[in-house]
Description:
mainly alpha; single chain; 72% helix
Amino acid sequence: MSDATVAQHAAGSAQRSGTPGRRKVTKRQRAARLVAPLVWIGPATALICLVVVWPVVVMIRTSMQKVSSFGEINGGAGWNNFRHLFHELAFKGVVERTIVWVIVVVALTMLISLALAQLFNQSFPGRRITRWALIAPWAASVLMTAIVFKWMLTPGYGLIDILKHHLGLLHNLNGSAADPLGQARSAMPWLMFVAVFVSLPFTTYTILAGLSTIPGEVYEAARVDGASKWHTYRSITIPLLRPALTVATLINVMNVFNSFPIIWAMTHGQPGYTTTTTTVYMYILKGSDLGESAAMSVVNFGLVIVIVGLFLRFSRWKSEVE
């Protein structure tokens, strides 16, 4: 008897005995299967659409409209808001300054946090207290931290000048002290210092969490093989830390790029536009032209996407998740 005949006999026997074959799925069951995941992801999707997608849509639409300082829409503007924005004398310098701001702050934050994470990963007296102390800049409001530093840098009676006076570096506190936030050459470095200061806790704890996942047996095997400390750090620690470093860098890039409270609270983007980034410039334009400010928001949004995309492209993040 051939195989085809055997199959036909088996199928006929199954039908006669009432044994069901492949069960037919009804349209209602198919629809229920498609709708079931929405019960779990629906609320999150709706929240993302409400607080992320919709504001972006409104932002892009506003950037192509004529909007008065009172928020009244006076018709469409096409690409005129973008043309006016690109012809602003301060625009080029603001974009360049923003890129420098992001690169310097993120690079310093990552380097210092990596060193701190290595320190806190070691056993030493008082480690728990120092770990708790590191949380303080993270727990405090960024705006409050910026205001405190601004008071400390106040010429004449700020903490910095008082310490300089006690150390003999400043002889007269009345009128002779220069304002570090009022000078172009010193204002931006101080803003970068504060930005790094408030970024250290999150970054350090992210890297510390990555260090805690590295098994000690790996280091033990490296020691048995005679690897030096530097070779072990370069060949084992850094590669295994790459996922944590990628996450910390990516979040820092977005946070620093969109940083507003530090700059606005300490300098308002002054003197001139020497401490103005694209986010601050967007807020400054809002007082004169809402349409142009919305255009700056679109440019800002595009710059964030480009910077994040370039970072992900060169960081080889896909190799970490595959």
